[in-house]
């Protein structure tokens, strides 16, 4: 379970404090496909980055499976990050490395024995449906395929949590469907919690078990996917 307890993130802007995340408390059960939606600048990305501490909270705490991770450093922080995969809007693949080497990166970083790397890469390629693209470079792939490589890389060390930051926002509808389907398959076949930020309502509708709506740094509504679209409670959701 992921639990945010009174999490705030305050940045400095033109010498003034700016509260991007404002006292958010939220619990996300294990194994959920959980969406965070809201308009641009609502604080979604900043909140989600506190899970793997790419962003440290200014105050409040983040718990994973009951353990306070807010102040982890050094080895403990590296270990935490191995338990959490992340994908991004612009894929963040290495252009001059082929698909195999892109996926192998995370395995090398975690000290996976050399002999186990290739078999694991091919297993991951099968999971994302790209077994026939192993030798290609990112430039040879469609946006959807690039994102599926990024998903394979994020899953390399069997993370318990996958963070997806606007993972379909740079894609056209066909490629979006392809990535959505890949994530659904993963969710159905692996014990993983997926936390997905998006401002694309079609994606929210088709993917999430539950949704939190963020506005001006706060969670203004939490609802089932069906509930949010049939009977939204907050002005931001409407
Ligand atoms: P969202 O993901 O909902 O679009 P973000 O979390 O990216 O929103 O940003 C929330 C607000 O915090 C925005 O106004 C953004 O400009 C600001 N912000 C994000 N990161 C920083 C930073 N490192 N320094 C200053 N302001 C930031």
Give the helices and strands, then pairings.
Elements: E1 2-13, E2 16-28, E3 33-37, H1 44-49, E4 59-64, E5 67-68, H2 74-82, E6 84-88, H3 99-109, H4 114-127, H5 143-155, E7 161-165, H6 173-189, E8 193-198, H7 201-207, E9 210-215, E10 218-224, H8 225-230
Parallel strand pairs: 3-8, 3-9, 6-7, 7-8
Antiparallel strand pairs: 1-2, 1-4, 4-5, 9-10
The protein binds adenosine-5'-diphosphate.
Structure commentary:
This protein is of the alpha/beta class and 238 residues long. It is 35% helix and 28% strand. It has 8 helices and 10 strands. The chain has helices spanning 44-49, 74-82, 99-109, 114-127, 143-155, 173-189, 201-207, 225-230, and strands at 2-13, 16-28, 33-37, 59-64, 67-68, 84-88, 161-165, 193-198, 210-215, 218-224. It has a 6-stranded mixed β-sheet with strand order 6-7-8-3-9-10. Strand 4 and strand 5 form a beta hairpin. Helix 3 packs across helix 4 (114-127), helix 3 runs parallel beside helix 5 and helix 4 crosses helix 5 (143-155). The longest helix is centred in the last third of the chain and has 17 residues, at 173-189. The two termini are 28 Å apart. Adenosine-5'-diphosphate (ADP) is lined by residues 11, 13, 18, 20, 38, 40-46.
Features:
6-stranded mixed β-sheet, 238 residues, globular, binds adenosine-5'-diphosphate, alpha/beta
Low-confidence segments, given as residue ranges, are: none
Number of helices: 8
Q: Assign the structural class, choosing from mainly alpha, mainly beta, alpha/beta, alpha+beta, or little secondary structure.
A: alpha/beta
For the sheet with most strands, the description reads:
6 strands, mixed
Main β-sheet, spatial strand arrangement? 6-7-8-3-9-10
Calculate the terminal CA-CA distance, rounded to whole Å.
28 Å
Instruction: Supply Rg.
Output: 18 Å
Shape, principal axes of CA atoms: globular
Task: Quote the beta fraction.
Answer: 25-35%
Task: Compute the number of strand runs.
Answer: 10
Average pLDDT confidence is: 94
Bound molecules: adenosine-5'-diphosphate
Helix residue percentage: 25-40%
Order of helices and strands: EEEHEEHEHHHEHEHEEH
């Amino acid at each position: 379970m992921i639990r945010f307890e009174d999490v705030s993130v305050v940045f400095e802007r033109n010498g003034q404090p700016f509260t991007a995340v404002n006292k958010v408390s939220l619990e996300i059960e294990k194994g959920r496909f959980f969406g965070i939606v809201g308009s641009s600048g609502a604080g979604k990305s900043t909140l989600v980055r506190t899970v793997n501490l790419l962003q440290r909270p200014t105050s409040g705490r983040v718990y994973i499976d009951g353990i306070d991770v807010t102040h982890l450093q050094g080895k403990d922080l590296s270990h935490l990050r191995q338990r959490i995969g992340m994908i991004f809007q612009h894929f963040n693949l290495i252009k001059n490395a082929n698909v195999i080497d892109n996926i192998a990166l995370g395995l090398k970083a975690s000290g996976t024995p050399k002999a186990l790397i290739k078999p694991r890469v091919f297993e991951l390629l099968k999971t994302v449906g790209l077994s026939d693209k192993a030798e290609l470079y990112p430039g040879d792939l469609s946006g959807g395929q690039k994102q599926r490589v990024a998903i394979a890389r994020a899953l390399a060390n069997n993370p318990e949590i996958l963070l997806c930051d606007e993972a379909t926002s740079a894609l056209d509808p066909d490629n979006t469907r392809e990535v959505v389907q890949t994530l659904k398959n993963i969710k159905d076949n692996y014990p993983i919690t997926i936390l997905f930020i998006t401002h694309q309502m079609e994606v929210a509708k088709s993917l999430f078990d539950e949704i939190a709506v963020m506005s001006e740094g706060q969670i203004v509504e939490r609802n089932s996917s069906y509930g949010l679209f049939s009977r939204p409670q907050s002005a931001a959701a409407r």
